[in-house]
Amino acid sequence: MNNYDEKFNNSIKNTIFCKLPTKEQEFIKEQAYLLNFSFQEIKQIINIARDLSMWDEKNIIEIFPNHEQKKVILSRLKSIYNDLRLKPNSYKNFELKNSPKEQKYTFKALDKEGFGLGLCPVASEKTRCCNLLTLDAVESCGFDCSYCSIQSFYNQNTITFDSSFADKLKDLKLDKNKTYHIGTGQASDSLMFGNREGILDALFEFASNNPNVILEFKTKSDNIKYFMQNNVPKNILCTWSLNTKTIIDNEEHLTASLQKRINAARRLADKGVKVGFHFHPIVEYENYLQEYKEVYQTLQDTFLAKEVVLVSFGTLTFIKPVIKQLRERDFKSKITQMPFEDANGKNSYPYATKQKMFKSAYDSFKAWQNDDNKVFFYLCMEDHNIWQESFGYQYSTNNDFEKDMLSSYTKKLNMEFLI
Ligand code: SF4
After folding, report:
1. What is the pLDDT of residue 170?
2. Measured between alpha carbons, how far is residue 13 from residues 42, 284, 417 in Å?
3. How far is the CA of 132 from the centre of ligand 1 (A)?
4. What pLDDT shows up at residue 43?
């Protein structure tokens, strides 16, 4: 092996070079030799090549600038790459590849240490947050949404249940004179596994024994069988994460279709269970505002304000491990093909883009804001000031936000509001 091969092989260690098609590997190696790329430059070009493939755009060989000076080549390459990030995505000719067709995972039940109840894992004082408490009834999820950060926390192929979950829940001592808002849909999907390991039995009993707890089940499934077959305590709230058909078809793999989710919510509302909807993430692509408006309108045509407790909005925020994990997967996704701007240490859309999407969303629900049974609207994990520019009001603290949310939820759920 000659000196150069050795140097190059050292440079590509801990990169995703070997995941690139052979032709692109050979091309990058040749260019690195001809232009004497540094380790950092090689790494950047490998990531660019990977992103182009994941985004289903022209590949690195097709877009590589032709010039004798390395400096010019690299700056032209970066601007081509950034232009692809800046232009609104189009899913028109987007071809999915290796997107999972069936759920492949194994179940594991073990007596876990500790109890998965705590503050929402992404809550922060840097963002305007509702202080949600999250309860991890199950770890990891059987769906495969390309943007999901859960995949970077848990092993995707194993769904873990806590065999002593029901006992721990029974032993949980809460302040009876305080209203709590607890969600079970952060570390997994709340309903896709039904009553496996008796988790819904335990959670329904917990809700019945703790009438001061608002227990929220959040899902992308239509698995409401247990809810239809059992009495649902009034302090239980069932919410659906919704998106446009374009994003569900291309980025939310294995989940229930938009219509199936809305139908499931309608069936529960018919049974008197209060429902809610989360649009998180709202994703920017060609004609997205119009497509989201159609979904917002469908909800208002399908539900009465008195049946709906909340509607929330949020958007893409990426931590580095998720971007790395996405690049390591051999599939197609346009989810990271976006202009990144820092959002409290994470990567997200530019502020102006977020302000536009949130204002369009909020303005699309006027009917539910002026109704006597008005619905509670909120932004999830967003900048303090963007509320004012999107909703026309803002909270000065997370506690104020939480208080307003709980007073609205308890009113709609016909519960006493205890502070
Ligand atoms: S606003 Fe969103 S991120 Fe913040 S605590 Fe509530 S659910 Fe969690």
Report:
1. 95
2. 11, 34, 57
3. 6
4. 94
Backbone angles phi, psi at 111, to 5 degrees: -80, 90
Residue among 126, 128, 130, 348 whose CB has most ligand 1 atoms within 8 A, to mutate = 130
Give pLDDT tens digits for 213-251: 999 999 999 999 999 999 999 999 999 999 999 999 999
Taking the centre of ligand 1 as the mean of its atom positions, its distance from the CA of residue 379, in whole angstroms, is 8
Atom of ligand 1 nearest to the CA of 127: 4
State pLDDT tens for residues 362-373.
999 999 998 889
Index of the ligand 1 atom closest to the CA of residue 119: 5
Give the residues surrounding ligand 1 with Cβ less than 6 Å away: 120, 122-123, 129-132, 380-381
Q: What is the pTM of this model?
A: 0.94
- Evaluate the CA torsion angle 217, 219, 224, 228 in order and state its sign: positive
**Residue ranges in the chain whose pLDDT is less than 70:** 1, 103, 151-156
178 bridge partner residues: none
* Integer Cα distance of 122 and 127 in angstroms: 10
| Domains, the chain, ordered by start | 3-86 (no CATH), 106-412 (3.80.30.30)
**pLDDT for the residue 152:** 61
**Which ligand 1 atom sits nearest the alpha carbon of residue 314?**
2
**Nearest alpha carbon, ligand 1 atom 4:** 129
Question: Who's near 375: CB < 8 A, 6+ residues apart?
Answer: 305, 308, 309, 310, 311, 365, 368, 369
CA of 129 to the centre of ligand 1 (A): 5
Token pair belonging to 160: 């873990």
- Residue closest via CA to ligand 1's atom 6 equals 130
Residue pointed to by tokens 């971007």: 323
Tell me, what amino acid is at 401?
F
